[in-house]
Each structure stands twice: as structure tokens, then as C-alpha cells.
Amino acid sequence: xxxxxDPRDLLDRQLGRVTMYRLVTIVLLALAVVMVAxxxxxxxxxxxxxxxxLVTLVVLVVASYLSNRVCGFIWRIKPHGESSIITAxxxxxxxxxxxxxxTLLWLGGAAVLANLSKYxxxxxxxxxxxxxxxxxxxxxxxxxxxxxxxxxxxxWWAASKTLLPYVAVGAFLVLWRTRRLDLGAxxxxxxxxxxxxxxxxxxxxxxxxxxxxxxxxxxxxxxxxFMLSEPLTLPPRRHQQLIVAAVVAVVISYPQWIALLxxxxxxxxxxxxxxxLSLLIGNLLAFAFARRHGVTFVLEQSRVxxxxxxELTFRAKRPVSFEPGQFAExxxxxxxxxxxxxxxxxxxxxxxxxxxxxxxxxxxxxxSSTFKKALLALEPGDTVHATGIGGDFLLPxxxxxxxxxxxxxxxxxxxxxxxxxxxxxxxxLVYGVSSPDEVPFVEELAGVRVVLVGPAAxxxxxxxxxxxxxxxxxxELIANAVPDLASRKAYVSGPPAMVxxxxxxxxxxxxxxxxxxxxxx
Length: 521
Prior knowledge:
Low-confidence stretches: 266-272
Radius of gyration: 25 Å
Largest sheet: 6 strands, antiparallel
Helix content: 40-55%
């Protein structure tokens, strides 16, 4: 729905080809390849050897994957295999590589503890702590309990001058894909500033030396991109996520800035405030913000809306609450999983209700992913699991505020939930579609002021709808159709290319603009 493709659209399209989990796996594997290549070339020396790195990686992957499978069998839960691979890769970047048998056993134990934390340290089907951080912390505690000595201790060697550019690119891709660049920036700026301050004032380092030490020896970029951004341990609202990032940043820089007070860092039985413990503290704060819990949905019905659009309606097994405009991540384990994975996020199209019914509308093209095929193959009575509900694409609390709602394709779903919930709002919906056959929810939006934009006009439009013939949405088209933009707050939902095309122009014409990207649809 846009005239040209800018670099942001190209990046979104490429990243949207795989799920978030697959992207993290690919990026971490690429970083591992880079590390092994530099080691083979002699850039890294003892304890870094190609043999040690590969042996350590194999031990962590095998231990993590098998323990995850065993835990799933014991708890009768379908395990998510790719998450166990990600956990192993993260742990690989935390501990020194080795070929020592005893040390490898402890590293395998860290992977096992990480996966156990998903099941034992959980609340209503959702793990409370970041598994890799939990495994790294628990293995240190376990060593102290067993022999009062530390055989393995996380070093976070991912922080190095050589790897930093590669880690930065990988972290950027992950944070861009999840729309959490602000979270990463808050964490890096606060933690970096406090750490540099601690090195300069507490340890008398020159500023440039303190800056280099912070950049090359403290894994802030790695943590921001691959640990702090982990979706299952973040609170559901953006302002809560930023608070968590700030708190973790303060705690993680504690060993440096505590020197300013001429005090010794606090320890319990020799175990101090570490980077992994800082993440766990942030996880607890996130849990306090919102008790994350998994939700089990039972399919009630599936209906065809258009040739390429379906709506599935579920009933939650236990009471579920959400706000119009939020989304849920659904898990549908199935055979032959493609690169899109077995988890996907969908905006809720139904309004909040006391019956616990939740509907999701999805586009189903001919080359659908295996996930969508498995989802559509469900029969009434079948269950799916959601790993929580969240999102900040919420309308203003003031119901008198005039609104502009801009939707592209299946981006109509959050607006449908909102307009079904509060039909009396002063809202104009500008709705871009690809063809006259792909206009779902006409009856549900019959009383709403809608400007329909598409290449051809559908028949039988409601009286409150206006049709504008155009191949794609543009700011100029929207301004012509809605002349009072200056008084309205704009909400834009749809494919990244469409959102990126209209957002800058609307930001100049409307009171504010809020966006919701449907990446990979």
C-alpha cells in the first residue's frame, strides 16, 4: 500500500520472513561463527581455542535441548525446542570455553538449571526469570553449596573490542524487529553512564580509558539485545518495560559506582551482585508489574470473512482480561515446522467480555506458513496456549478526544476490538485494502465513519462509508479525506511499509501519532 520502498521497509520485510525466535537463533549462530573464525585466525588466544569453543557449544546445546525435552515430558507440556537452543547459545557467550571434563559438567548443569527454571520458577505457565540468566546464577550458587568453590563463573566474554561491532549489529536487528530500540537505548545509556562514572571517579581512570573499558569489557550491548529484550520476562506495557530497563541498568553498574561511596560491594556468602543477578532482579520487578500468566484457549468456531481472511473465536479456560488494541502470542506445536516457527502474535479483534471469548482475525495467503495451516486445521474443542497478553496500542483514556484510525489490510484487527468496545467515539477509520474482495468486518463497522481506499469499489457499502479509488494509502489522500486532522490523534496499524509511508506526514498534521506494526504478515 505504498509507492516506494525505503530502507526501513526493506529491513522489515527481510526480518519479517522469520519469527522472533528464529531471528535470535540465526543472529547468535552468526556471532558464534564469527567468534570461531577469529579464534582460528589467532585473534583470540587461551582459553579460546576452536576445539574448546566447539566442544563447549556442543555440550551446552545437547544439555539444554535434552533437559528441555525431559522437562516437557515430566510436566506434560510440549517443549519449545528452539528456545532451548537460544538458551544454550546465550550461555555459550557467558562462560569461558573449555575442554576440561569437570568444567563441562558444570556448564551442562547450567543449561539444565536454565531449562528447569522455565518449569519450576514459573507462574501459571509462564517462566518468571530469564532462563539463561537463571541458569548462570544458579550454577554459581550450586557450586558454593556443593564444594564452597567456583569452578565456572560467568565472564560475559561477549564483551570485547573485536566482537562489539558484530554484537551491536545483531542487537540492533533484534531490537528493531521487536520495536524495542528505546528499551535498549535506555538501558545502555544509563548503565553506560553509571559505569563510566564509577571507573573515572571511583577507580581514577581517565575518561577515555573508562569509556573503552565500559564498551569493551562490560556486555551492555549484548545484554540489551539478547537478554533484557526477552519477551516472556518483560511486563506487558511499554512504560513498565522502560522502568525495568532503567532499574537493571542501575543495578548492573553497581560494582562500579559503589566505589564512589568508598564501600565494598555487597555479597552473600561470597556471591556478589553480578550481571545475571541484575537481570533476575529486573525479572522480579517485571513480574510485580503484571503477574504474567499463560492462557489456555478452547476453539469455539472458525469463520471465513474473505477469500484470504479468517476469524477464530476461542473461550479462555480461566478468566482473562485485556484492553482493546492488545495482542496475544499463540503457540501451536505441529509437525514439519517451517522457518516461521510455532509461535505467532495476533491482535485481538474482539472486545473485552465477561464470557472470556477472544477472537483473532488473520490473513491466509496461498503460501501460508505451517503455523497458520496448523491453526486453521484446529477443530472446535481443540486447545491452544497463549504466553500472555500485552501491548500499548491503546486509545486515549479521554473518550471525547477525536481520533484518526488508519488501517492497512489485516491491521484493521486492533481497531475492530476498540470500535466494538467504544462505538460512540469520534473516530474516522481510513482503511486501505488490496482488492474489493478483501474487505472484512463490513457489518461490524456499519455504523462507523469509514474511508475505504482500494483499487476498485466493493458493492453494498454501508451509508457511513466513503470509497476513494487509489492503489495505496498516502498522507495526502488521508488529509483530503479527513480535513480536520489537526484536531485528531492518529493511530496507524498495518504492514511496516504502509506505516512507515504515512507516519511522518501524519506526525506533521495530527496532534500525535501512535503505530502498530504487523511484521511478517
